[in-house]
Amino acid sequence: MQGGSTCSSDPQRAQRSRRSPRSQVLAAGASAANATAGDELDPGVTVDTQVIDFATLNAAAGVSTQADQSSRNAYTESQARSGRLVDAAATLTATVGDTAVTWDAALALDSVVVDTLYDETSVEPQGQGVAIKTNGEQAADAQGVVALSSGAGLGQGYGASGGTKLNGNCVSTTTTGGTATTCFEKYKLQQNSSTRDHFYYGRWATATGASNAWTPTQIDIRSRPHKNNTSIATMSNYWPKAGQNVCAGGGTFGFSASGFSISIPIQQCSDLTPIPNGTTMGVIYDQGAIYNGRSKGADFGMVVDTFKNKTAYLADYTYVKFCGATYLSCDGNLRKDSTW
C-alpha cells in the first residue's frame, strides 16, 4: 500500500484490506518504483497499487473463463458501435484480480497499472487510476485478421486521402471504476522527399464510468518513438495545437499535412492541453475539481518524418482517472511512469 502506513491499526483500513486483498499484489517483474503515482496524495487519502506486467497478462490470457468471454464480447460490441469491426478470434483477454484486459493480438501490450484510492471515511473505493502502456505493433505492420471498417467511430479517422493505412489496434481495461479503451492508427503518406518518408499517427482514448456514480475526470494520452526504433527524425505536424478550435466543424476536425487529409470525430472540445515535444506528442483532458459525465474521451494526431525507407514505430501511454466521490478523496492524479 502507498500513501499511508501498511501497519495501521485503523479498523476501517483493516476491513478495506480484507475486502480487496488482490489490489496490493505486485505482479512478477514489477517494481515499487514503477508503482508510484505522479502527484502527492491529499491527507487522509491512501492508494493501493496493482501492477500487471505482460508476462502475467499473457499467462492469464491462456486460461479462458466465462468472465473472459464476457469481456471479449463487450470489447467487440463496443468497437463495433464505434465503427470498428473486430474479429473476436484476433483478440486476447486476461482477467487478473478485479481487472479485465482485452486487446488486439497484433498489439504489443506492455503493462497495466491500477491505482485504487480510498479516504479515511470509507471502506469503498473513492477513485481509480488506470495506466496502460503499449509498445506498438506485435509484428511489423501486422494487421492480423482484424477487419477495420471505414465508417466514422469515436476517435477513429475516416475519409483519409493521400496515404495508405498500415495498422490500427486497441486495448481495453475494465476495473471497479469503469472501462478505459485506447487505440492508435498509422498511415504511410504518399508524399515524401528524397531523404524522408512521412507517417500519420492518430491516437484516441475513451473512458466510461462503471455507473453514473463514476466520472472520468482525467485522460492523459501520449506517444513517442519506440525505444528500440531510431528511424524517426522529427515530428513535423500535429493537432490539437494550443488555442485551436478543433470543434469548429460540428464535432469533426479536418486535419491535413504533407498531402494527407483525414476527418476525425472529436470527443471533447474543451479542457484539453496538448503536450508536443520534439518527436513525442500527447494531450491531457482534465475536468478539474468540478466534473460531470459518465463517458469522456481525448484525441490527437501527429505526422512524423522518418529517415528514407524507414518505418515509424511508436509506443503509447494512456492514463485515465475515474472519480466516484469528492475531488479531495479522489486526488493523486496523472501518473507518469518513469520507465515510459
Automatic annotation (TrEMBL):
<feature type="region of interest" description="Disordered">
    <location>
        <begin position="1"/>
        <end position="42"/>
    </location>
</feature>
<protein>
    <recommendedName>
        <fullName>3D domain-containing protein</fullName>
    </recommendedName>
</protein>
<feature type="compositionally biased region" description="Low complexity">
    <location>
        <begin position="22"/>
        <end position="37"/>
    </location>
</feature>
